[in-house]
Amino acid sequence: AQTVxxxxxxxxxxxxxxxxxxxxxxxxxxxxxxxxxxQPPSRQMILVIRQEAxxxxxxxxxxxxxxxxxxxxxFSLKISDSQLGDTAMYFCAYxxxxxxxxxxxxxxTLQVKP
Amino acid sequence: DTGVSQDPRHKITKRGQNVTFRCDPISEHNRLYWYRQxxxxxxxxxxxxxxxxxxxxxxxxxxxxxxxxxxxSFSTLEIQRTEQGDSAMYLCASSLSLGREYxxxxxxxxxxxxx
Lengths: 114, 115
Known about the structure:
The structure holds 2 protein chains of 2 kinds.
Chain A (H helix, E strand, L loop, with lengths): L2 E3 L4 E5 L4 E3 L2 E3 L5 E8 L6 E7 L7 E2 L2 E6 L4 E6 L8 E9 L6 E2 L3 E6 L1
Parallel strand pairs in A: 2-12
Antiparallel strand pairs in A: 1-4, 3-9, 5-6, 5-10, 7-8, 8-9, 10-11, 10-12
Chain B lengths: L4 E3 L2 E4 L5 E6 L6 E7 L6 E7 L2 E5 L7 E4 L6 E5 L8 E8 L9 E2 L3 E5 L1
Parallel strand pairs in B: 2-11
Antiparallel strand pairs in B: 1-3, 3-8, 4-5, 4-9, 5-6, 7-8, 9-10, 9-11
């Protein structure tokens, strides 16, 4: 069975600085997708960035980028120029090409400090 | 393009009562998913539909839970004989089935409290 692990329950960063959130996963499949979702306090889940396993190039969306290491089964999220609005819980998630369901990690609570 | 909507946003019920939640997906999305999220945890998959067909159910979905998507548009999730352990946020998500089918977009959730 596929699993997703986020080993950092809480992190904090100063505004305008860079922070990296870690995620590892376990799977025997070769074709899958990885995502980072953001869930602000009392607000809905927002898709931040996605990575296809067959692509070697790391995905980037504005201030958000990933470091995808397929052999190591690692998928970290880097947030550059952190903003107060980045304060949220961040979830790493996996979906295989065979099923539609997302498998989430436990989440990392990120606090951006002014 | 409106997002995924869920109704109600909050529901308080007494143990043993039945509750029903509704989810309206993004209009062109034919896949619809239900997840359950407890406080401080990641969402857990419950079930999903492609059009009106229910394609997968988690073992978390006991026989007290039933989901339907009768016309391939909105979906309902019913919990019968609620228990305190059912207290959670119930999330709905939708996606396309071709192209960017693995990108799921979430609604605001229905927070259930069983007293």
